[in-house]
């Protein structure tokens, strides 16, 4: 069984993330969605909220695919998480060249730490390349329309966060 790990903070999960989830189903037999506990990023949503939102978002994808999908919170190194879940592939989404520069460095470091885990880059769909969780939160905070970037469920969750 080929297990892939796609990790991020997913604060919040966007259509860009969902696109990578969906397309990853063609690469692996099991997809683990690693939800990073990274307090340095000061997430808007708690870990439990992010895990719950992702589970809600992937429910239909799980029904329409033979692929097993699991949401897995982690607070250690990405390669350690990959080892824990038995992943042989780390999936990384790219939106722009600036993403690649950072990811290229990360791959090099991960290769030193674990030679048996391969990293696969997936370019975001052209219609979703501009979507960034940070920008989605800013638009929502300022009352803008985010329906092109997130599902109605995530939109409601963001509206609740900013109406307080």
Number of strands: 5
Q: Give the helices and strands as they follow along the chain.
A: EHEHEHEHEHH
Domain count: the total is: 1
Strand percentage, roughly?
Answer: 15-25%
Q: Which superfamily, in CATH terms, is the homologous superfamily?
A: HUPs
What is this structure's SSE topology?
Elements: E1 3-8, H1 15-24, E2 30-36, H2 47-64, E3 68-74, H3 78-85, E4 89-94, H4 97-113, E5 118-123, H5 133-141, H6 152-163
Parallel strand pairs: 1-2, 1-4, 2-3, 4-5
Your description of this structure?
This protein has 164 residues and is α/β, with parallel strands linked by helices. The chain has a single domain, classed as Rossmann fold (3-Layer(aba) Sandwich). Helices cover 45% and strands 20% of the residues. The protein has a five-stranded parallel β-sheet with strand order 3-2-1-4-5, with helices on both faces. The longest helix is centred in the middle third of the chain and has 18 residues, at 47-64. The mean pLDDT is 90.
Features:
164 residues; 5 strands; alpha/beta; 20% strand; 45% helix; Rossmann fold
């Amino acid at each position: 069984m080929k297990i892939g790990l796609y990790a991020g903070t997913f604060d919040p999960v966007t259509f860009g993330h969902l696109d990578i989830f969906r397309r990853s189903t063609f690469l692996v037999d099991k997809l683990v969605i690693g939800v990073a506990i990274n307090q340095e990023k000061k997430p808007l949503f708690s870990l439990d909220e992010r895990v719950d939102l992702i589970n809600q978002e992937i429910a239909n994808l799980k029904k329409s695919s033979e692929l097993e999908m699991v949401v897995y919170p982690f607070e250690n190194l990405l390669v350690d998480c990959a080892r824990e879940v038995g992943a042989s592939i780390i999936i990384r989404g790219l939106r722009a060249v600036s993403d690649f520069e950072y990811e290229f460095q990360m791959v090099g470091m991960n290769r030193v730490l674990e030679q048996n885990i391969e990293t696969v880059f997936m370019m975001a769909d052209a219609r979703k390349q501009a979507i960034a969780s940070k920008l989605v939160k800013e638009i929502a905070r300022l009352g803008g329309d985010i329906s092109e970037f997130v599902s109605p469920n995530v939109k409601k969750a963001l509206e609740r966060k900013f109406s307080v």
